[in-house]
Amino acid sequence: HGTNPASAAVAGFETITVKSDENGLVDLEDLRRVVGNDTAALMLTNPNTLGLFEENILEISEIIHSVGGKVYYDGANLNAVMSKARPGDMGFDCVHLNLHKTFTGPHGGGGPGSGPVGVKADLIPFLPKPVLVKLEDGTFHFDYNRPQSIGRVKPYYGNFGINVRAYTYIRTMGPEGLRQVTEYAVLNANYMMRRLEPYFDLPFNRHCKHEFVLSGRRQKKLG
């Protein structure tokens, strides 16, 4: 997820990597060490890139919130928790979804792709404008009167058709269908992990979510 720190750096922020502990999770002591009054935000996937669920996510969020920072959720691994858990309940303030990974959008070959962003109430005033709002009479209009908005974004509303496609998929699957997708993703990943275990080293030998990491140290010895 190298584009996340890259985007922060382009925006003028200093990016700091937080270490993982012996269990492959965020090292809480290292997090406390680097967090301070100048902390703007923490970016996190959950499950993380190792395919492990961050068991201390509520404490992680509290550490960041205690210094006035925000917690940002990269939805790259949402397949593992769809219809099972909600990022907002974990303490995340801002969420972006990868529609190509989770909701059937195309990926590669030029896309088109889409990464919609959702925020909690206190961040709504800063969303790009115009914002589409629904009036009391049931009609919709664009609201340009957003004095705290970050302004317009270059691609307007992006590849809107992919949002429609994702919405259609979500409505077609429904809560139970999405829950089944999550359960199959986790089941398949654990099945594959155990089938490959005799041939590779497992850095973290525990149940994974939708993906897992193998080590090639054994193969490296053979060149």
UniProtKB/TrEMBL annotation:
Highest rank taxon of the organism: Eukaryota
> GO cellular-component terms in the record?
cytosol; glycine cleavage complex
Keyword annotations for this protein?
Answer: Transferase
Biological process (GO) annotations? glycine decarboxylation via glycine cleavage system
Q: One Pfam family of this protein, by short name?
A: Aminotran_5
Q: Name one GO molecular function term.
A: pyridoxal phosphate binding
Q: Which residues form the Aminotransferase class V domain?
A: 12-108
Q: Does the keyword Transferase apply?
A: yes
Task: Read off the InterPro entries from this record.
Answer: Aminotrans_V_dom, GDC_P, PyrdxlP-dep_Trfase, PyrdxlP-dep_Trfase_major
Q: Which PANTHER family match?
A: GLYCINE DEHYDROGENASE (DECARBOXYLATING), MITOCHONDRIAL, GLYCINE DEHYDROGENASE, DECARBOXYLATING
Record-given protein name:
PLP-dependent transferase
- The organism named in the record is Rhizophagus irregularis
